Each structure stands twice: as C-alpha cells, then as structure tokens.
Amino acid sequence: MRILRSDVKHGTVVVLPEVLDDFWVLYNVIKKGDRVYTNTSREVRLGDRYDRPEKGKRISVFLGISAESVTWDRYLNRLRVHGIICEAPEDVGAGSHHTLNVTLNKPLTIVKDNWMKYELDQLKKATETGAPPVSVIVVDDEGYCLAVLRGFGFDVKAEETVSLPGKQSADERTKTLQEMFKSAARAIESLDSEFRQSIVVLGVGFIKNEFVRFLENSKPELRKAVVDVKSVNNSGKAGIDEALRSGILNKALKNVRIAEEAEAVEKILERLGKEQATATYGLTEVVKANNIGAVDQLLLTDRKLREASDEERRVLESLMREVEDKRGKVVIISTEHEAGTKLSSLGGIAALLRFPIS
Question: Which of the four pLDDT bands, split at 50, 70 and 90, describes residue 212?
Fold first, then answer.
C-alpha cells in the first residue's frame, strides 16, 4: 500500500493498494458513511428516457459514493464498496446506487468525518516493507498441508492425506513417503515465485526432517528456500494454528500482522486462565476498565466492528477513541484465523490492563 496523500485535518486520505493484503486493510478501514472516490465505469443513457436500453453505453468516470456496505471475498480477491453516488459528472448524476470495485494499482480516496488512530495505524503498517511472504508446509505420517501466510490469516494451497504402512513393511513405507514428498514438492513448485522464497517446514516426529533431506537431494533450489524446521503436536491446518499460537513462526513472519494478533489473544487467554485481574472481556467490563484508565491494549475482532448496529458502533468507536487518547493501543483481530475465532468466543472484545481491577 502507498499513501499518496494524507490530509487528516480535512478527513481525506488517498491510497494506492498494491498487494492483495491491502484489500483486507481497506475492508476494515472503510466504514458505513465514509465517502469513497475512484475511477470506475458506469452505464449512461444516450437520449431521452423513452430510448431503448441498448442505446446506453458504459463510460469511464470518476465517482464518489457514500458507503453503505463493504464486501471482501478473499477467495476471489475482490473488494467492493456499495453506496449512493454523492459526486459524479453531470451526465451520470448523483443519488442513485453504485458499487465500486476496488482494484490494485488504482488510487482510492477515502473521506471520513473523523479518522481513528487505529485506522491510520493500519494504513501505515500496510505501507511498511516487511519480510517476503511466507509459505508453511506441515509434513508427517498422515500427509501434508501447504499454506501461504497472509496478513489476515492463511490460505491452504494443497493438502494430501496418506495411509503410511507400518515399520514392518519398510520398502512400502519408503515408497509411500517418497511419493508423498514428490507430491509436496510439486505443490510448492506450483506456488507463485514470491511464495517459494521463504518456506517453513513443520511436523510431528521425524518425517519433516526426512522431507528436508529429500529436498536437499532432489530439489536443492527448494531446500535453499527453507528458512526453518520446527516440531508441532498437530497435523495439517491444526499444526499451522498451533505454530502461530505458540509463536514459533514469529522469526519467519517478522512483520506479518497475524503473529502480533495471535500473541495478543494468547496473553488475554493466559491471564484469564490464571484468573489474573489484568485482563477482562465483554463490552460492559471493558468500558468499566477504560473509565478508570486501566486499558493498555483493546482487542476487537473485525467482525465485531462490521456487524455492530449503528448504536453499538458509536459506542465502540467512542471507546476506541478514548483508549487511544489515554495512550492505549487498539488491535483489530482478523476472524480469518484461530486468534480471531477465540476472541469471538469472548464476545469479540477484550482488553489487557495496566493494573489489576476488581
């Protein structure tokens, strides 16, 4: 993401989304009532209202809409903002509904009555050049699972389950393992080049190490891309969740947002599990803690913000603004990974506190 212009005093920020993760950031920044402007296409009528529909044609225009809803499809890599046109050329006219399709490398202007600090922080983080994308593969005697880690979660790219013969059938076992390793290597090779640059190998037991040796002998270019090999207790996607939760991927992830979110949620759960009075959850309890200046970090799921009623959203935004005014930090947790699911089970809102409260 690039910030092309920032005039927060007048409510205007112009951004240029450059990678798919930027769509997730914008999905959480653009809210109902914001004005969003970009170049788009719109069908206009040529002639009067009695002309047949085929007389119209689609033209390229610069439009502004007052946002009513924002939808993001992570699988289709599509971000759409729907609302009522508030600014348009004369031949298009304002007042009707329109949907803006946000695309990469096309400037987008966002105008808000009040920018929240956490929103600006999210945009700023998206501009920071961090580590290259990280791919993770879990390999064990049950098969393999290959995923690409993104800022909002992880996408499973390939998965295979095997039935491995027992150690008494050594030849069959070796043959099955070799076939699985070949399949896993092909899956990695099928990834875009940027996702093959940093690979973390996880797994239960020693099969992960055998896979690394296989790469060393058969696919040396892939072996060079392996930046870490770690043990986990779970297979498949559960193994990736475990690695994120435990922090063993932090070195490889570096600046990727998901690691920070997982760590924050685990701190909440750890303190609650030990019945420590330096963590609380639920809107009512968090508001009480904020009223006495106790909130150090406020955690909210992205879904909690998006699905809130107008009244609840006003309460949440007021709470976030007060936390930031008191030098607290607001962390938005994606529900696209396990940390967000866990926080959702606590009502979608929790806080780490500066001091114990009863």
Answer: very high
